Amino acid sequence: MASKSKHTGLGIALGAALGAVLGVMAGHIAIWLGLGIVIGMALGGTIRRAETECPECAALHRAHEDRSREGRSSEDRSSEDRAHAVNAKQLQS
User: Fold this and answer.
1) How far is the C-alpha of 93 from the C-alpha of 78, rounded, in Å?
2) Full residue range of the structural domain in which residue 22 is found
3) pLDDT tens track for 34-64
4) Residues 44 and 9: beta-carbon distance below 8 Å
5) ∠ at Cα 15 (14, 21), nearest 5°?
6) Could you tell me if 83 and 64 lie in one domain?
7) Cα–Cα distance measured from residue 10 to residue 35, given in angstroms and rounded to the nearest whole number
8) What is the reported pLDDT for 43?
């Protein structure tokens, strides 16, 4: 949540600055400042950072995709389910 708030705050600040500049140029500071803040909030709320995965998770996902492509037997699925359960417990701690 902190990163989303950070991006929204940055959007508000940049929107306010842009709105103030446009307001001074147009002679209607109040209108453009308000519009700049609203546009900045909208843009700041939509900014998303690419989530990075740890090397262990990336290897697990690659192995999962490879098995999916090959077609798996029920034994492979049950061992994979156990591996997922173990990895989920490790990630939680």
Assistant:
1) 23
2) 2-46
3) 999 999 888 887 876 666 677 777 788 888 8
4) yes
5) 90
6) yes
7) 15
8) 84
